[in-house]
Design goal:
The complex is a heterodimer of chains A (276) and B (105).
Chain A (H helix, E strand, L loop, with lengths): L2 E8 L3 H8 L9 H17 L3 E6 L14 E4 L3 E2 L14 E2 L2 H13 L5 E3 L6 H10 L9 E7 L9 H16 L6 E7 L16 H13 L1 H5 L3 H8 L7 H8 L7 E7 L6 E6 L1
Parallel strand pairs in A: 1-8, 2-7, 2-8, 3-6
Antiparallel strand pairs in A: 1-10, 3-7, 4-5, 9-10
Helix pairs in contact in A: 1-4, 3-5, 5-9
Chain B lengths: L6 H6 L1 H9 L3 H9 L1 H4 L5 H8 L3 H7 L3 H11 L3 H9 L3 H6 L8
The chains are: A alpha/beta (276), B mainly alpha (105).
Chain lengths: 276, 105
C-alpha cells in the first residue's frame, strides 16, 4: 500500500528558482537560502519518496480568471514547465503519477471534496521554484509529482479549516492506494509578505516563527483561524500558507519537525521545514 | 484587509488582466514588444495609457491582478521590488533601504 513518509513546508518565491537557475549558491546574498535547503535535499535523497504530492498555487499562469478553480488536481503523466513571461525555465518536464492522482481524485469526490481535475497543462513556479532546491534535475527528476492547485489569489479563498480537512482526506486516499509507494507531502507558500496595496512590503517575523511552531504542534489552532487573520498577521499574499495546512492535515496528528530554515532578504520571508 | 483581489475587482479588470495574462505566451509577448499598439487593440484608451506608461499603481487600482502584472513586468524587464516600490509610492532605492538584503533580487 502507499504510505506518507513525511512532509515539507516551503516558500515558493519565484526568485528562489531564479537564484538556482543563475547558480547563486555561493553568492553571499543567497547562500543562507541554499544552505537552508541542503538538509531537505539530503532528507529526500535518503528517504527516496516515489512521489511528491505538491499543494501549491498557480499565479494566473495556467489558469485565468475566466475560470479559476478553487481546488484542481493534476492527473497527467507529464507536465510542461510554464512560460511566465521570460520563457520556460530550462529544467526537465515534470513526470506525474497519473495512477495515484486519478485514484485520489475518485477518493476525494467520494469523500465529498468535489475538486476539479486538469491534465496536459504546464505548471508554474509555485511548484518548481522550491522543487529545484530539493530534487536534482539531472539526469532527470528522481521521482514523480501529483500537483494540487489551490486558489489563493482571487477571493473568496477556501477556508483554512477546509484545507486542513482536505489534507486528511488526501491521507485517507493515499493510504488506500494498492501500489507500494512512498509519498512525501509538500505544502508551499508564504511566509509573510504583501505584494499589493498600501501595505506592500509588509512582513511579520514574529508571526512567521509562531506559525512554524504551530504548524508542527497545534495545526488545529491554525485550522480554526479565519483567512482574514492570516492576511492581517502575514500579509494579504502571506495568507497562502493555508496550503501548508493541506500538507499538515495529511500527516499524522503528532509529527516531529526535523529541520527548519528562515530567511527574509527582500519582500517575502523564505522558509522551509521538514516534518516526520 | 487593505486590498483584496475579489470578484468585483476581477470583473473590473478582466479585459486588462486577459491582455496581461497573454504576455505569458511567447508569440503574444513578441508582438507586444515589437508592435505594442497592435497588440493592445482590444484595450480601452485608459487601459492602453496605463500599460504604455507602466503605471503599476494605476493598473492595480483599476483591477489588475498582481500576478498578471508580473507577466508585463517580466516582458519589460521590471522586477517585483520595482513594482512593490511603485505601489508604496517610493523609488526602488527608497524601498531597498527598508530591506535586509537589498542585493537579493
Amino acid at each position: 500500500m502507499a504510505r506518507i513518509i513525511g512532509g515539507i513546508g516551503t516558500s515558493h518565491v519565484p526568485t528562489i528558482g531564479m537564484a538556482f537557475d543563475k547558480g547563486k549558491q555561493d553568492d553571499p546574498d543567497w547562500k543562507p537560502l541554499f544552505k537552508g535547503y541542503e538538509p531537505v535535499r539530503k532528507w529526500l535523497a535518503e528517504k527516496k519518496p516515489d512521489v511528491l504530492f505538491f499543494c501549491f498555487n498557480d499565479h494566473a499562469t495556467t489558469f485565468f480568471f475566466d475560470h479559476y478553480p478553487t481546488f484542481a488536481l493534476g492527473v497527467s503523466e507529464r507536465y510542461a514547465i510554464a512560460d511566465e513571461g521570460l520563457g520556460p525555465r530550462k529544467i526537465p518536464p515534470l513526470e506525474g503519477h497519473a495512477g495515484l492522482a486519478r485514484h485520489i481524485a475518485r477518493s476525494l469526490v467520494e469523500d465529498e471534496f468535489d475538486i476539479s481535475v486538469f491534465q496536459d497543462q504546464p505548471l508554474d513556479h509555485g511548484l518548481h521554484s522550491p522543487l529545484t532546491m530539493m530534487w536534482p534535475t539531472q539526469p532527470d527528476w528522481p521521482g514523480r509529482v501529483v500537483p494540487l492547485v489551490v486558489n489563493v489569489i482571487q477571493h473568496p479563498l477556501p477556508k483554512p479549516g477546509r484545507c486542513y480537512r482536505l489534507g486528511k482526506a488526501i491521507r485517507k486516499a493515499i493510504e488506500a492506494y494498492p501500489e507500494d509507494l512512498k509519498v512525501a507531502m509538500v505544502g508551499t507558500g508564504g511566509l509573510s509578505h504583501q505584494m499589493i496595496g498600501e501595505r506592500a512590503g509588509f512582513n511579520n517575523e514574529q508571526w512567521d516563527l509562531e506559525f512554524l511552531e504551530l504548524i508542527e504542534r497545534d495545526p488545529e489552532r491554525l485550522a480554526a483561524m479565519k483567512i482574514e487573520d492570516f492576511a492581517r498577521l502575514g500579509g494579504n499574499e502571506g495568507a497562502e500558507v493555508i496550503m501548508w495546512l493541506i500538507m499538515r492535515g495529511a500527516l499524522a496528528p503528532k509529527v516531529r519537525k526535523v529541520h527548519q530554515n528562515y530567511y527574509l532578504p527582500m519582500t517575502t520571508a523564505m522558509a522551509v521545514a521538514v516534518f516526520e | 484587509m487593505s486590498y483584496v483581489f475579489d470578484l468585483e475587482r476581477s470583473a473590473a479588470g478582466l479585459r486588462l488582466n486577459r491582455f496581461l495574462h497573454s504576455l505569458g505566451n511567447q508569440e503574444s509577448r513578441k508582438r507586444f514588444l515589437e508592435k505594442p499598439e497592435e497588440a493592445m487593440l482590444g484595450l480601452s484608451e485608459q487601459e492602453k495609457d496605463m500599460v504604455r506608461r507602466l503605471d503599476w499603481k494605476a493598473m492595480q487600482d483599476y483591477g489588475a491582478s498582481f500576478f498578471c502584472l508580473e507577466k508585463l513586468g517580466r516582458a519589460k524587464g521590471v522586477s517585483n521590488p520595482q513594482m512593490v516600490a511603485a505601489f508604496r509610492g517610493e523609488t526602488l532605492e527608497e524601498f531597498l533601504k527598508t530591506r535586509r538584503v537589498p542585493g537579493a533580487r
